[in-house]
Amino acid sequence: MFKKILIANRGEIAVRIIRACREMGIKTVAVYSTGDKDALHKELADEAVCIGKPAPKDSYLNIPNILNATIMTGAEAIHPGYGFLSENANFAKICEKCNINFIGPTSEMIENMGNKAKAKEIMVAAGVSVSPGSDGILKSLEHAKELGTKVGYPVMVKASGGGGGRGMRIAFNEAELENAYNQAKSEAEIAFKDDRIYLEKFIEEPRHIEVQIIGDKAGNIVHLGERDCSIQRKHQKMVEESPALLDFDVKVAIYKDAIKAAKAVNYFSAGTVEFLVDKYGKHYFIEMNTRIQVEHPVTEMVTGVDLIKEQIKVAAGEKLSIKQDDVVFTGHAIECRINAEKPEEGFRSSPGLITRVFFPGGNGVRVDAAVYTDYFVPPYYDSMLCKLIVHGKNREEAINKMQRALGEFIIQGIDTNINYQFRIMGNADYQAGKFNTSFIEKSMEE
User: Does residue 341 contact residue 347 with C-beta atoms inside 8 Å?
Assistant: First the structure.
């Protein structure tokens, strides 16, 4: 097992990893920017190294500085968390060449799954259900128009090397396709320095379902059930829950495809296979995230499996501590992302000084956070402050518990989306399970 791990991240996920390492008896090294000089992860780690100025490109995306910090402190491994360098194949490749353990899959796996068009090709070959569309990269606008006519409108053009909702455009007819094609290419180039795009049939008002998988280097792979991530705004998830409200046979089919997807690339470490499920219960692969997810705590709550610890053990060469038959699902879990933002002003971010914090508690309530009273939320990074996760014996109890916990949650000095999340929990459609990816636009903003 590793003796010392460097965490190449910040915020709540860095704190989460530090806590897991401490319970395992592993020393930790935090890296921080000058904008994070008062950050909690810097204080909790055994060592901390400043790696640059506040801008991510100068610090958390600065590969030479992170590697220098790793070598200087004698850390044997790097945990990238999520975001930043977690799905950067080049970073993983450099770690491999430097004999530094990257706590995640290989650079080849990241590269294959990070290229959405390539990933789709691999899934088709593996027999995984995918939405109809291009077999790979679009060659031209004319190529896109041919496919649009073939698969039927609406269609979506998507950045091959991207994510997070960027480089994605919908066309409901051929007249709209040219504009969608040009906009997606332009945005993909700006966001990812890669203007390659592909096309697929647009599934209207689906549920966004993802399956948590984890594998070891000996070829053992298990799934830990599904999460429903349909409550999202502009492709950014807001609420996640497990289990999803799906028929049993639909779940079984999704689990089988998730395992097929992982085995197709000989995957190890934690990963998530994501699907869209239409109103008829048909599922379609959309992507595989080769890292730990923001929403991993809901899976931990219903399975009792510590995903970060399993990730670390697998990276150290150990076999999974669980088999598929060991995975038991208990109750229902919900996670709300608590962001520094102003929902009434288009969800504009709201950095600033937190003057008071009170976290909710009680049975079945978990808060993953890195903020505290008198902490200044910097303007340079993602607006997420923390995650509130609850667990109940069933969905109704989980919703009631989340409402109670959100009602107790206090963050003063800056604006947050706590009240907005409370409104979601109280929405009749949400409570009845009548929602899909258009829920925010249709059920909330109306």
Answer: yes
Domains of the chain, start order: 4-103 (3.40.50.20), 132-201 (3.30.1490.20), 207-444 (3.30.470.20)
> What does R_g of the chain's alpha carbons equal in angstroms?
21
Q: Is 291 one of the annotated active-site residues of the chain?
A: yes
- Can you state the percent helix, strand and coil of the chain, rounding each to 5? 35, 25, 35
Give the single-character DSSP code of 382.
Answer: -
Paired tokens of 320: 């999974």
C-beta of residue 406 within 8 angstroms of C-beta of residue 336: yes
- pLDDT in the model for residue 192: 81
Look at residue 163 in the predicted model and tell me its pLDDT.
66
pLDDT on residue 193 = 80
Structural element, H or E, at residue 37:
none
Which range of 75-79, 164-168, 184-188, 277-281 scores highest in mean pLDDT? It is: 75-79
Residue 329 one-letter amino acid: F
d(CA 150, CA 144): 10
Per-residue pLDDT reduced to its tens digit, 102-120: 999 999 999 999 888 889 8
Whether the bond between 132 and the residue before it is cis, its omega within 30 degrees of 0, is no
Task: Assess whether pLDDT exceeds 70 at residue 204.
Answer: yes
Which residue in the list 10, 196, 207, 291 is annotated as catalytic? 291
Q: Give residue-wise pLDDT tens across range 137-180.
A: 999 999 999 999 999 999 999 998 766 667 889 999 999 999 99
Residue of 20, 218, 8, 22 whose CA lies nearest to 100:
8
Summarize pLDDT for 273-305 with one digit per residue, the tens: 999 999 999 999 999 999 999 999 999 999 999
The Cα 199–Cα 385 span in angstroms is 35
Strands (E), 62-138: 77-79, 101-102
**30-35 CB contacts, 8 Å cutoff, 24+ apart:** 31/6, 31/7, 31/59, 31/60, 31/65, 31/66, 31/69, 32/59, 33/58, 33/59, 33/60, 33/380, 34/59, 35/59, 35/378, 35/380
101 within 8 A of 315, measured Cβ to Cβ: yes
How far apart are the C-alpha atoms of 72 and 69, rounded to whole Å? 5
